[in-house]
Each structure stands twice: as C-alpha cells, then as structure tokens.
Amino acid sequence: MLACDFFSVDTVLLKRLYVLFFIEPDTRRVYVTEVTVSPTGAWVVQKARNLNMALAERAQPVKFLIRDRDAKFTSSFDEVFRSEHIRTIRMPAQAPRANAFDERFVGTVRRECLDRMLILGRGHLEHALADYVIHYNEHRPHRAPGQIAPCGMAPVSVLASPDATQLRRTDRLGGLIHEYGLAA
C-alpha cells in the first residue's frame, strides 16, 4: 500500500514551496518526488509516472494508493496507477486522521529537520529533504519490532554499555542530525 500527500515549506524570502511525497504505511519508507513552486495536475501525473518506474523493481507489487481529494490529483493521476493495477482510494472529505501516516511523516520532518533550519530556496530544500529522507529510510528507528529502519536489513544490536571506541558518529545536514553505529 502507498499513501501520498503534499506539504508546504516557506522560505526565508517568503516563497512557498510544495513537496509531493509517497509513503508505505507498513514499512514507513518515504519517497520524496520533487519540490515545486506551483504544483499542477500535469506535474503530479509526471511524478506518479516516475514513481511507478521505481516501484516496478519491487518484489511485492503495490495494490492500493490512498490519497486525499486535492484537485491536483486528477483523473490522469489515478489512471497512471490504474494502468499498473493499483487501486486508488480517496479519503473522506475533511478527515485528516484517515491519512495518519502521511500526517505523522510531515510532523516528523518538520520537527526533526525543517523547523531547525532556514530554507533559502528550492535547491536548498531539495538537498535538505534528500539528506533527511536517506536518514529517515536507512537509519532512523521506527516503532517497529526491533527498532528497524524502513530500509534496514537487521535489528539494531544494543550493547549494555558500549565503549566510546566501539561507536561511530555520522553527521547529517551539517550536524543537525547525528547517526550512531558500531565501528567495524
């Protein structure tokens, strides 16, 4: 299953940018497509086609797409997924809890990343989101058995009291986020 939505980010120069993203509710893996100043129906359809090419390599096919009733999600958008045998489910009107996984990701990316930095423009936002999504998908533990990240292969091993020489720290987003792991 996939869910999709938009969120907006205001820049330092008071320009509003829109981000289209898709999330898999079962693993919480996120796909951020691109950033735009004015999303149109044609732009959204093209991003859906691009995502379908990336999803074609999956072992398990996607069966459902949950989306809201935004006018940018046109019938052409639905047709892109229908051609891949993915059923589109529209959320009820004015029901933000119906797409809770999307809302949770938006809150997380705002709290952990966007609220802690000043976004200068589109390129800056794309770079910050790309780096954050790598962290979110590959390292950030989620509420899953074993605290596994969405693209994580094995549970994170926990040492009772690790020695400082056993730990390795990797900084992301200029030191805004720190990732810790065991040294090889």
What does this protein structure show overall?
This protein is of the alpha/beta class and 184 residues long. Strands 3-2-1-4-5 form a five-stranded mixed sheet, with helices on both faces. Helix content is 29%, strand content 24%. The protein starts with a strand and ends with a strand. It has helices spanning 41-55, 75-82, 100-112, 122-138; strands at 2-10, 16-23, 30-36, 64-67, 87-90, 167-172, 177-182.
Task: Describe the structure using short key phrases.
184 residues, alpha/beta, Nucleotidyltransferase, domain 5, 4 helices, 7 strands, globular
Brief characterization of the structure:
By secondary structure, this protein is α/β, with parallel strands linked by helices. The chain contains four helices and seven strands, in the order βββαβαβααββ. It has helices at 41-55, 75-82, 100-112, 122-138; strands spanning 2-10, 16-23, 30-36, 64-67, 87-90, 167-172, 177-182.
* Fraction of residues in H or I helices: 25-40%
Terminus-to-terminus distance: 36 Å
SS class: alpha/beta
Number of strands: 7
Q: Strand order, main sheet: write it out.
A: 3-2-1-4-5
CATH topology: Nucleotidyltransferase, domain 5
**CATH architecture type:** 2-Layer Sandwich
What is the 3D form? globular
Q: How do the helices and strands line up, and which of them pair or pack?
A:
Elements: E1 2-10, E2 16-23, E3 30-36, H1 41-55, E4 64-67, H2 75-82, E5 87-90, H3 100-112, H4 122-138, E6 167-172, E7 177-182
Parallel strand pairs: 1-4, 4-5
Antiparallel strand pairs: 1-2, 2-3, 6-7
Helix pairs in contact: 1-2
